[in-house]
């Protein structure tokens, strides 16, 4: 980085830190209370739109988009990694900055693999935060840890595709603003069955309100339904889409896109997770100073000190690993050059985040498992990261000796 | 045991196993659906009353009550331990058998420490399952890991006590059937402050609907509110109770009761937890046989096999430890004779249960964290056991070398 | 047990405890010093023979031999388990009581599978402790975790077998008193290659000083050579033995013997390991009371208390598991009835023993890793148990869900 | 770094890598065999002197010395960190490059705190590798985890100090080339007792062969005596030294020196440990590819793959942490600016190194615990790092939240 770039990044970080601490975190409770009352699934709490206006005003909008793509602010993978950690401290800051999953990944896919017409159709609204999108990959009937199992059927009829399948964990699909699905499915037909296993799947752009789409139900994560965003189970029954408008990159190239989507996306995900875990550690330390047991504040008990120390050591190590991965992705210009690093952070970070948050819960006692802090919900969501996009058991073996 | 007793116990176990597997577990979903709709906090799903009738008819009622006490079925601590494990497999079987916390502990306290009048006032309705009760110990403002911190104030005025304080995690206090609170508080007055730290607290029987009692709110456990039973935050503002009717055992003897309540209660708790964890392991194994990834069922992957093996080894060891504790409690006729064992199972079992359930979640993937199985809620509740009644960090050091 | 048997067992335990604490443990240092000087490999320190005389006089001789076999003292598997734990506290007590591996397993094999002539040839001297024996199973060239890999060749010529192969970790083979090897090898010939994989191996009795036997070298365990007993690498080059005198049970039945040898043997091994780990915990506690750091004895530091608590919890659980395995072996009259339990203790106990001893080393600081305590050597030897007879990775998967 | 510096460092790394792999590692066995025979404690195997000549010729001599000090090659802390990792792969490379503990730390102390006369007296011979030195800190009678316990007495008489005490773990004190001790002791006298606890100790230069010095014995590390270098127990009985020649920095300033010695020293130590652990991982991977069990090479078993992955993830994270610490030390110009980082690497690295080497041992089976690989000795020595310079339990709590 030149020193002008460094200064710009430092300024962004400072601005973002203040925004997250002073505006987003205090608004979390407001959002939550709104989300508990009234029309939980049909209304987005107003505070979100206010925060989005603030983020735009502060120049904290669409920071995720890599240089060279529409809407970019010219932030590199490494720079965005640092910003992601700060955003991740708050459960609502990413959305406030239009940097929340799965929209970020979806916008990157459009920018990288979409045709001009596809980009024109969807990107402006997404980049403005007017609509949202979902990514329909995982299926209830197949072990998604092995993504070649994906069975949702795509068949071509002339200039149309017909899609039939059942998806779940489609985060954001129930959001009242959601308009676009990116759907991964398997091409039907004998010629496709004969192809190599990673060349049978296709990704399609499917308008969320297409005939044949049913939002079956909202999945809960350890009791949290995350309304109004939520995690949907969705069926597609003979959903028809125009081939030109829908086909991304090419038939049979779904895995190619999935792979490209994963690299920087995982860096973002991991940095947000570390941000949340850092917030948990801050809460742990604060609590341990305030609370007295057996005549001493908790922070003077060796076991609590060890909890703090272990957390600090694990978080610092994990962050170094993610930042190193970000630098390698940047240098190699794609996930290919850092496959092992991407696999490593996928395994390391969710485990570290869960461990740190779990310790913070323990030190908070009963307060830690209930709605009085962000900790229990944070744990629940971090726990899903050990499963999402393939479990530890699948990622770990990728990490073979250099 | 004589062989007649052995046969009786074997019969009870078989009957209970069938009841739990064939009637309770299938009813869990029914209860849950009911509890999600309509008047969540004011109505108990009808299926519960039906199961209670069945349990009575099958002779599976009030099994927890030790020999020599009202309502007892003559089941020893060790025998009840085995029955608890079976009940624990289902989240609703304990209530169906009138053997659910905190009523069991409360009934034992009444039976052991209550006057004849106190017993007459409360025990019949509790033993019949017509009313429920809560135990008001933990407080939001103090570190309950050190119970001598308990600050709820009790002051004597003539033949009355006036109680003022704030309690939380009062499980069952919001249940529409709840009528009785057992409240732990600290005696006010200089003469009490001068007493040894474990002789300042008193336990009182407080009618749940006394003037001055406010149910502030329902606490959630990782997103679950457990309606209609729930976990309440309760304030007592100048609540007046008649001294004779309220005072348990004697002023300043609260810790004595708390201690007595803990021994067998922990055995029950732990065995229920192991039952739930065994159910999780059964689910893990079943899933691992059905699900295919990378060309083989999951149970043919070494990592999954190791998960199963570790779970089996941990559960078997933990069970042996609890059963050994039960035998020692039985032999010594009280918690005093098995203090170390009681501390050990308090630490070991919740950790093992969490570990096993967590592995089962992992093998279930996305299904494991949502409402489609009992696993996520089971994890959340087992997690609280590492905190309730004192965290690991407090219990572990009790376990000093014999 | 009848009460007479119980009294007898209680008496044995008391006698053994006194013998181990008052005579064996103090003699360890003497033995070690002797073993460090003079003819390390050709002389057994005299103190061993003195202890053996004492053990015989005290009725503590050959306790391992199961009822119904030559030399038995009528001790059941469960009873011997309890005695093994006590013996295991001292590194020399098992030999003092003629109950040390590998002789115990070898004597059991002779008693169970040997012909009358084979028994007559070897058992009297072994039972008297006049000679010792070794078990030649593991090989340097093959992964012994999968015992079907064993490649030492056995070929029949008329009434002779000729054995050629290389073995290692032949514990005791270098002992100046060693006279007998039990050798596992694979039958040569096409008809044998066609047999099922577990029916190709044979066990032979081979006199230790047969022509063609070379003791290649002593293997060290983390720097300890365990002279004069030691762990040998042995080559057999065309070693000829008389078929009648050598063949155990039958050609191709080697795995049958190996399996039978494993059940009770593992119980013994595990209980001895627990005894040693208990001694380490006693040392840990004692040291933590004597040593002052930061103004308090170590035992007043939470971390040390947690070390003690974890050790106590792990040891008690492991012991319950082993004793349960012993009862099941007894009841089923063979390893078949308790395969899973035998696999579980194989994994659990060495890991627990290593963990406990490692904590004891940590609390001893520099003293813990050097020759001033038994701890470092104890750790080294316990560590090998995670490898010997198959590593954790092989045993664990045997533990499938019941 | 300028690009000329970068090129220089890259060249040094390449040269060192070749020297370590091609010359040092093959010579380890030679050195070991020599050290096992003949006059173990009085002779240094000749191969060491040959390697030292080679290292000098290759410009790999005294790389540790920081810029601005005598003998320096101008290598920064970060650069030396990278070089340390490479040297650490071989157990003899550090000595070959005159970069082995405790001489490196001792030379740094002389360079930083020694008077001109003291430097002239000792540095040339040390820098040439003609003599060696020891650091006498730890004592058998006191818990050295709390260094203020150090009790060796120093009393001033006119222009002399008299030193009396017992030290142990004085690594290298028995080396036939050892000429200098740096001794930490406590000033005697009431005025010293009145001082703050960290201002009572003094460091003295004591000629190794002073009257009153006795080398009591060699301490073993898990059975390894590390002759001829070794770890000595040393008594000093009324050892007299000239005050001018002996006093380092000033009376009562011992802790100041100890602190300064620790920062970069720990970085070196940790990087060497990571180098050794990397070598263990390389061995693990190689072995897992060669060895077949259950029909597949070990590296195709999930558990082994997970071992490799965990090792890779832990090593990479630990290395990032140490390199970050090195950069902070460099930037702050002293240990003060990176106290937390220095504490963290002290805890993290030995644990990671032990874990990785332990896994490598497991995959090697019996070969891993004996003298056929470097693994068992490596484990033993890494294990001592969890104790040396203060155990984990002391270092961890230093790591408080930033």
UniProtKB/TrEMBL annotation, chains A, B, C, D:
One of its GO terms (biological process) is fatty acid beta-oxidation using acyl-CoA dehydrogenase. GO terms for cellular component: cytoplasm. Its cofactor is FAD. The keyword Transmembrane does not apply. Residues 252-399 form the Acyl-CoA dehydrogenase/oxidase C-terminal domain. Gene3D superfamilies: Acyl-CoA dehydrogenase/oxidase, N-terminal domain, Butyryl-CoA Dehydrogenase, subunit A, domain 2, Butyryl-CoA Dehydrogenase, subunit A, domain 3. Residues 9-129 form the Acyl-CoA dehydrogenase/oxidase N-terminal domain. Residues 134-233 form the Acyl-CoA oxidase/dehydrogenase middle domain. Keywords: FAD, Flavoprotein, Oxidoreductase. It holds the Pfam family Acyl-CoA_dh_M. It comes from the Eukaryota. One of its GO terms (molecular function) is flavin adenine dinucleotide binding. InterPro entries: Acyl-CoA_dehydrogenase, Acyl-CoA_Oxase/DH_mid-dom, Acyl-CoA_Oxase/DH_mid-dom_sf, AcylCo_DH-like_C, AcylCo_DH/oxidase_C, AcylCoA_DH/ox_N, AcylCoA_DH/ox_N_sf, AcylCoA_DH/oxidase_NM_dom_sf. Belongs to the acyl-CoA dehydrogenase family. Homodimer. This is Acyl-CoA dehydrogenase. The lineage of its organism: Eukaryota, Sar, Stramenopiles, Ochrophyta, PX clade.
């Amino acid at each position: 980085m030149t020193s002008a770039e460094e200064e710009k990044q430092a300024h962004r970080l400072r601005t973002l830190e203040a925004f997250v601490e002073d505006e987003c975190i205090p608004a979390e409770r407001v959002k939550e209370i709104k989300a508990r009352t009234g029309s939980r699934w049909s209304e987005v709490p107003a505070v979100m739109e206010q925060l989005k206006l603030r983020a735009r005003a502060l120049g904290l909008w669409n920071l995720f988009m890599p240089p060279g793509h529409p809407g970019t602010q010219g932030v590199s993978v490494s720079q965005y990694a640092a910003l992601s950690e700060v955003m991740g401290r708050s459960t609502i800051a990413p959305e406030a900055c239009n940097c929340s999953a799965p929209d970020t990944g979806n916008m990157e896919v459009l920018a990288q693999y979409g045709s001009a017409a596809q980009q024109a159709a969807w990107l402006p609204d997404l980049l403005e935060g007017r609509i949202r999108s979902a990514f329909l990959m995982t299926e209830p009937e197949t072990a998604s840890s092995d993504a070649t199992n994906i069975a949702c059927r795509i068949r071509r009829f002339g200039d149309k595709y017909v899609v039939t399948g059942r998806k779940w964990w489609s985060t954001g699909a129930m959001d009242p603003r959601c308009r676009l699905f990116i759907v991964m499915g398997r091409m039907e037909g004998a010629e496709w069955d004969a192809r190599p296993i990673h060349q049978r799947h296709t990704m399609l752009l499917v308008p969320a309100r297409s005939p044949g789409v049913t939002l079956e139900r909202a999945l809960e994560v350890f009791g949290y339904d995350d309304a109004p965003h939520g995690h949907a189970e969705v069926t597609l029954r003979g959903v028809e889409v125009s081939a030109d408008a829908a086909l991304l990159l090419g038939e049979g190239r779904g895995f190619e896109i999935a792979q490209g989507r994963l690299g920087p996306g995982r860096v973002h995900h991991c940095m947000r997770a570390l941000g949340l875990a850092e917030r948990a550690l801050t809460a742990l330390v604060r609590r341990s100073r305030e609370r007295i047991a057996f005549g001493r504040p908790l922070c003077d008990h060796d076991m609590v000190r060890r909890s703090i120390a272990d957390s600090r050591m694990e978080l610092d190590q994990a962050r170094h690993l993610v930042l190193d991965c970000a630098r390698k992705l940047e240098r190699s210009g794609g996930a290919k050059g850092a496959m092992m690093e991407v696999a490593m952070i996928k395994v390391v970070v969710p485990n570290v985040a869960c461990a740190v948050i779990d310790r913070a819960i323990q030190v908070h006692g009963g307060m830690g498992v209930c709605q009085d802090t962000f900790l229990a919900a944070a744990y629940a969501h971090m726990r899903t990261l050990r499963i999402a996009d393939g479990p530890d058991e699948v990622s770990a073996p990728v990490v073979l000796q250099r």
